[in-house]
Amino acid sequence: METFAEFQRRRNSEFYSSKGGRIYSSFRTFAHSLKFAEANAVEFAARVRSTPDSEAGRRANKRKGKLRIYEIGVGDGSFALNFLKALRRINSEVEERTTYILWDFSEKGVELAAGKLEGFNFETVVAPAWDWKKMRGATCVKCNELLDDLPTRMLVRRGLRANEVVREGGKFLEVETQLDGEIALFMEGMPEGYWVPAPEMGLECILGWKGKLAVGGWIDVFDYGFADAEGMRMLPRDVWNAAIWREFSKQVTVDVNFAFLKRCVGGRVEPQKDYVERALGKDLWEVDVGGKLDYYSYEEVKKNEKKLEKEGYDVAVLLAGMEKSDYLHMEIRR
Ligand SMILES: C[S@@+](CC[C@H](N)C(=O)[O-])C[C@H]1O[C@@H](n2cnc3c(N)ncnc32)[C@H](O)[C@@H]1O
Q1: Given the CA of residue 78, which atom of ligand 1 is nearest to it?
Q2: Which residues partner with 292 through β-bridges?
Q3: What pTM value is reported for the model?
Q4: Residue 9 CB neighbour total at 10 angstroms
Q5: The predicted structure's pLDDT at residue 203
Q6: Ligand 1 in contact with 106 (CB < 6 A)?
Q7: CB 227 within 8 A of CB 267
Q8: What are phi and psi of 265, to 5 degrees?
Q9: Mean pLDDT of all residues belonging to the chain
Q10: Which residue of 101, 147, 161, 182 could cross-link 70, Cys pair, CB 3.0 to 4.6 Å?
């Protein structure tokens, strides 16, 4: 018998060690979206211009490579490259002061990513996300679709008791468990019988990274998940329980429980689309075309109507903003 978190950890370490470098180019994420990267660059440039507030910080900040961005779980480095190119275009002086740290537990991923960054200041770290002792003076720590990969506890409220989801003989069962602290309080407010992910490892990472932030530093988490229990109550229990986790080529991912993370570390959670729209100053529509996630402007939606319809979109429904999105952004300041 293994807990859900152990099951996820086992499956994902098998997944990442078995497929070599090929998987790193095939993630269906926003890493390839130029608008997503540009929004991050706009936000970063604006933020570092207005921080830090101390004179010592200002002096340190002028030095080349002094701003340190840690990207944890870099995949094939597409996001890093698109971000740095956008930053150089938007503010080359800030870009020159920036060192980009490519961090992943996969040596292959880091190698692939590093190969893309010639001409930019970068460093590499091959280590698990929770090895934050290797981090120092972080201006910004960011991750895209990392937390959904990390071993996640799965809990269920049954009356006043809490059960833990475990796996035995290829099936999931519930066994009684003891909870304390924030997770016990959080579970009290959860609807009965619903599988509730408790991202304890994700929380540990965020707390560790937070302790390594420089003055004025912040963490950006991008991932899919849920920000409150309302979305949960709207779905029948069995539908929710089947959809909260998924298997892709044996890899196991779980929707990120941003509500729990926010309760424990504070910060701000918003739809990722709002973040990108705010940074770029225009209305955008989230699309999944040719296995790539992206944001289209109104003109791009109109221009690509046929392509979108082939992908199964009803363009009128899309433009009316009726497509639901689970992609969220969480920001945590030092
Ligand atoms: C789903 S991929 C996302 C990659 C990229 N950020 C993107 O958006 O396309 C998850 C990435 O996190 C890395 N990763 C997974 N678990 C990790 C861990 N425990 N520590 C460090 N990196 C991890 C994987 O090697 C992979 O590069």
Answers
A1: 9
A2: 289
A3: 0.94
A4: 18
A5: 97
A6: yes
A7: no
A8: -120, -5
A9: 93
A10: 101
